[in-house]
Design brief:
The complex is a heterodimer of chains A (143) and B (655). Chain A has a 6-stranded mixed beta sheet. In chain A, strands 3-6-7-5-4 form a 5-stranded mixed beta sheet. With 143 residues, chain A is mainly β. The mean pLDDT of chain A is 86. In chain A, strand 10 (115-121) and strand 11 form a beta hairpin. Chain A has a single domain, classed as CheA-289, Domain 4 (OB fold (Dihydrolipoamide Acetyltransferase, E2P), Beta Barrel). Chain A has helices at 55-58, 131-135, and strands at residues 2-8, 11-16, 20-25, 39-45, 48-54, 71-77, 80-86, 88-94, 100-101, 115-121, 124-129. Chain B folds into 5 domains: 1-144, Up-down Bundle (Four Helix Bundle (Hemerythrin (Met), subunit A)); 148-238, Alpha-Beta Plaits (2-Layer Sandwich); 265-328; 330-508, Histidine kinase-like ATPase, C-terminal domain (Heat Shock Protein 90), CATH 3.30.565.10; 513-651, OB fold (Dihydrolipoamide Acetyltransferase, E2P) (Beta Barrel). Chain B is 43% helix and 22% strand. Chain B is built from 21 helices and 23 strands. In chain B, the strands form 5 sheets. In chain B, strands 20-12-13-23-22-21 form a 6-stranded mixed beta sheet. Chain B has a 6-stranded mixed beta sheet with strand order 14-18-19-17-16-15. The longest helix of chain B is centred in the middle third of the chain and has 29 residues, at 298-326. Chain B is flat. The termini of chain B are far apart. Classes of the chains: A mainly beta (143), B alpha+beta (655). The A-B interface holds A 27-28, 30-36, 39, 42-44, 48-51, 53, 80-82, 135, 137 and B 524, 568-571, 607-619, 621-622, 624, 628-632.
Chain lengths: 143, 655
């Protein structure tokens, strides 16, 4: 299975690459008043209106200023198109299925709710995101 | 008329044509039946009977071509029955009429079910009833020469009836010596061949379509075994009024069907999208022009500006042209209503007259499709809940026959559809009691019609106990309102005890591109659709009166609530002694939206916002002004609703 690796607040996350349509640099994000707190705003991506989820806010970290490394991962799930804002996007890797373990109780913290599994790549630990949970619009404790 | 063996199944494109054509004939059948009903017991209008007959005949022909046997059979038996009536062998009694109506409706269902791929309804019973109606035909082919007789009866000099004759060659026919030249020769014997169009069928085979002018089409029937199918071509009949435009038939209608082009709506969508892209591209151009002004010699800059202005003008014309193509008469919705009313009135034992007005008012095709079910639902409600039974009406001193009025009109860039009845009005205490029973939050004494409407439209209210036909298709008031809102429209209610109820739907004429006021609040830019804006006023902050949490402005002899967008949307913005207010909404629902700056008026391309993460009260969509940045479009009706909600919370319920 192929994954895209990206960084949020110093941690490396992975997302199945078949969910990701493309990646963009982030320029201007239009704020949407009264939207859930983890929604950074809205952008046009290839002519479509796409909500932008700030993954830092989603995982309960402090927001960070947008810079040249900030990336928007445009993902498609359940018929929706959503942008996920990460601090940086790193690489594209194949992770064998048997290297992925269920998240278990070892992982504590807000992002724990959004994990599909944990993989070990050499000496690196990678958290695999459950995209459905991440883009779920239902208000959570963080929102 | 079985298609030849070597003919593969017809492709989807062909089926689309079939459905489109069948729909047209079905509409004619409905309409003619309705006219005939009015004439029961008196002289039947021959032209209507003729039209009905022709439509059944065509339906039979086209259904046979697509091998929809059930539809073909129904149409065939309707045709036979009608022939018997036309030839005065059988009288059109109410029982016979009912048989025709049932058959027509079943036919409609068969076509719809076939389209949806769902199981077809039973056709045995309607056909049995029709058989009872029709006296047996003499020997010979079922297709009589009614059109031919009609033509003979027509005054001299009238155009000859035209027929569309289709020949599908096959190996088997060739073996029997029947080729396209054979068919052409036969046709020339009985009339004049106006055109021959070879067509590639969806299956990759070939067919020939002849346009034939003849009085003697009876021979055609005998050639069916030879792969020949035929149907009458639409007759240009200036004495048949166009139903679409009762008031003023447009030139296109008067010119006859031949001048119409049937276009797939998605192609028009594509076109509209392209125009939208051009509008954005031009906005970018204008933006760039602004920025290069100081680098370009004045003379050249002015020329550029003029070209840009010219481009904008043409684009606007183009946009309006495309928009006009998409507009269809709202009468399309109305045409189905007499049937809905007739059936339901009978089911409920009520007497109802339907008044239609403004059927020629035009509205975007997309809106029509979406509004069909909600309007039907409101009409159903008017009959099941609004109009009282005849006895009760008589007791109240009203005529036994209730009236439902369905009207449409345009007002500025909006269209208004009204559904009103002269029934008992809404029983507010009963509605409140039922709301409470359903566990809904009911404000004390909702004498405010808006609160009443909220209650009626609350999900869980309208559909719960209504398993009867009135709520038949599961479209409750909640769905009615959400559909209207999705389309950027507004639903309003007026009701008076004993005098009736009116539902008013206000919709934008079109969705895709519109003019908008661009306004700024803090560092955020918003677009307000022009159709919602009454005017933009300058306000002196000192003139505001504060009442609890509300700020009111004296405005045109009344008061206008001011909505601070900065507060509502939590946007940082400094207090100003003077500011602009964009007045939106009409009557009591009018509010002034307080903004820092008006940045002008622009043509915007509306993109709807559908993602649940972005579903925010007061925001209806997004647009781009040319700099690549996204600008949110304000939902003016929602903002005025939100203001009303705030008011009733802070003031308590107004008496």
């Amino acid at each position: 299975m192929n994954y895209i690796l990206f960084g949020v607040a110093g941690t490396t996350y992975a997302m199945r690459s078949d969910h990701v349509l493309h990646m963009e640099m982030v320029e201007h994000v239009t704020a949407v008043p009264n939207a859930p707190a983890f929604v950074e705003g809205v952008v046009f991506s290839r002519g479509q209106v796409v909500p932008v989820i700030n993954l830092r806010a989603r995982f309960g970290f402090e927001r960070a200023p947008i810079d040249l490394r900030t990336r928007l991962l445009i993902v498609q799930t359940q018929g929706r198109r959503v942008g996920l804002m990460a601090d940086e996007a790193r690489e594209f890797v194949g992770i064998p299925d048997d290297a992925v373990r269920p998240p278990g109780d070892a992982i504590v913290g807000l992002s724990g709710n959004y994990l599909e599994g944990v993989a070990t790549l050499g000496d690196r630990i990678v958290l695999i995101l459950d995209i459905r949970e991440v883009v779920d619009a239902l208000p959570t404790a963080a929102a | 008329m079985k298609p030849p063996e070597n003919q593969p199944a017809f492709g989807a494109g062909f089926m689309d044509d079939y459905f489109a054509e069948a729909e047209e004939h079905i509409v004619t059948v409905r309409r003619s039946l309705l006219t005939l009903e009015g004439a029961l017991g008196s002289e039947l209008p021959a032209a209507v009977l003729e039209e009905l007959f022709r439509s059944c005949h065509s339906l039979k022909g086209i259904s046979a071509m697509v091998e929809l046997r059930e539809a073909e059979l129904l149409a065939h038996h309707m045709e036979s029955g009608l022939r018997a009536i036309r030839n005065h062998q059988v009288a059109l009694t109410p029982v016979n009429f009912e048989a025709l109506v049932v058959a027509g409706r079943t036919l409609e269902h068969v076509v719809a079910a076939h389209r949806a791929g769902s199981p077809l309804p039973d056709i045995e019973e309607p056909i049995r009833q029709l058989r009872a109606l029709a006296t047996p035909d003499g020997p010979g082919d079922s297709s009589s020469s009614i059109a031919g007789q009609a033509a003979q009866a027509a005054p001299a000099g009238a155009p000859l009836p035209r027929w569309k004759v289709t020949f599908v060659p096959s190996a088997e026919l060739v073996a029997r010596g029947v080729k396209v030249d054979t068919v052409r020769a036969r046709l020339l014997e009985i009339g004049q061949v106006l055109r021959v169009i070879p067509k590639v069928t969806a299956g990759g085979g070939i067919a020939f379509e002849f346009e034939l002018e003849t009085r003697d089409e009876s021979k055609l029937a005998a050639w069916r075994e030879d792969g020949v199918a035929y149907e009458p071509m639409p007759v240009i009949a200036p004495d048949v009024p166009s139903v679409l435009t009762p008031g003023a038939p447009s030139e296109a209608f008067a010119a006859g069907t031949a001048n119409f082009v049937r276009v797939d709506l998605s192609r028009l969508d594509d076109l509209m999208r392209l125009v939208g892209d051009m509008v954005v591209a031009r906005a970018r151009l204008a933006d760039t022009l602004e920025r290069v002004e100081e680098h370009v010699p004045f003379r050249e800059w002015r020329a550029l500006q003029e070209h840009n202005a010219g481009l904008e003008r043409h684009l606007r014309d183009l946009r309006e042209g495309v928009m006009r193509v998409r507009l269809v008469p709202v009468g399309e919705i109305f045409r189905r209503m007499p049937f809905v009313v007739r059936d339901l009135a009978r089911d409920y034992g009520k007497r109802v007259r339907l008044d239609l007005a403004g059927g020629s008012t035009e509205i975007d095709k997309f809106l029509i499709e979406r509004m069909m079910d909600p309007v039907i639902h409101l009409v159903r409600n008017a009959i099941s809940h609004g109009i009282e039974p005849p006895a009760q009406r008589a007791a109240a001193g009203k005529p036994a026959e209730g009236v439902i009025r369905l009207g449409a009109s345009t007002s500025g860039e909006s269209i208004v559809v009204e559904i009103s009845d002269d029934g008992a009005g809404i029983d507010v205490p009963a509605v409140v009691a039922r709301g409470r029973a359903a566990g809904l939050a009911v404000p004390e004494g909702p004498d405010d019609t808006r609160a009443l409407l909220d209650l009626l439209c609350a999900s869980g209210f309208s559909t719960r106990e209504e398993a009867d036909r009135g709520s038949g298709r599961g479209v409750g008031m909640a769905v009615v309102r959400s559909t209207v809102r999705e389309l950027g429209g507004l639903l309003a209610l007026e009701t008076a005890p004993g005098r009736g109820t009116t539902f008013r739907v206000t919709l934008p004429l079109t969705l895709a591109i519109t003019d908008a006021i661009i306004a700024q609040v803090g560092d955020q830019v918003f677009a307000v659709p022009q159709s919602a804006v009454r005017e933009v006023i300058e306000v002196d902050a000192a003139a505001l009166r504060k009442i609890e949490r509300n700020e009111l402005l004296t405005y045109r002899g009344g008061t206008l609530p001011i909505v601070r967008l900065s507060q509502l949307f939590a946007i940082e913005s400094e207090e100003r002694p003077r500011f602009h207010a964009v007045v939106v909404g009409a009557g009591l629902a009018a509010v002034g939206l307080m903004v820092d700056r008006i940045a002008g008026q622009r043509e915007i391309v509306v993109k709807t916002i559908t993602d649940p993460l972005l579903r925010v009260d007061g925001i209806s969509g997004a647009t781009e002004l040319g700099d690549g940045r996204l600008v949110l479009i304000l939902d003016a009706p929602a903002l005025s609703r939100m203001q009303a909600g705030r008011q009733s919370r802070s003031e308590g319920v107004r008496a």
